[in-house]
Amino acid sequence: MAAAAPNLEDVPFFDLMSELIRRFKCSYRTHKRLILIGPPGSGKGTQAPIIKDEHCLCHLATGDMLRAAVAAKTHLGIKAKEAMDKGELVSDDLVVGIIDEAIKKPSCQTGFILDGFPRTVVQAQKLDEMLQEQGVKINKVLNFAIDDTILEERITGRWIHLSSGRSYHTKFAPSKIPGADDVTGEPLIQRKDDTAAVLKSRLEAFHKQTEPVIDYYAKRGIVANLHAEKRPKEVTAEVEKVLSS
User: Which of the following is catalytic: 32, 119, 140, 166?
Assistant: First the structure.
């Protein structure tokens, strides 16, 4: 059962006015439908929230969407859970269906950012078919281009404080005491995905399956190649230049 909508009389005045002002500003924004493509560690996760807020878009991370659909026990969520419980991959058609449901919500009225999908050319084709039925199409594909050797340095140097989520990097953002959290002094851990062996496997999958998606959209002239090795603020500036043109 869906949660009851909040009584507007109980919403603090400042929160209500802030939301009204945000919606008013967003109503003047040009609709954008974007795809972010890049290997793990290329900076998509850093830039997506900035793009979302600046351009009034909804951020559709497919992993999060699947988990939300399963938790909400939607029709498609139930089907996805059945597949996952069997140890099977969720079908492309199911994922596209969940995206279809999401982009019809009010929060996606001015457009969306797709993050983590499509990963293959077949998925890109299915996404295009779904969007074509709605009379819309992808406007821009942001390709976070970066050399594999830089990614290895970025990812294998990441360490986190498990209970708080605080993150550090041995080169770019080291803790005051190596291996210890700055606040609590507790030991830092490295995620199992943040190792050279796991990264190599993920990069191989990216180059084999997802790089052809870039070529697929490049034929339409909608791919923007970003210099993802730059500092985050410089990449943000590149993104803004692309999206404002």
Answer: 119
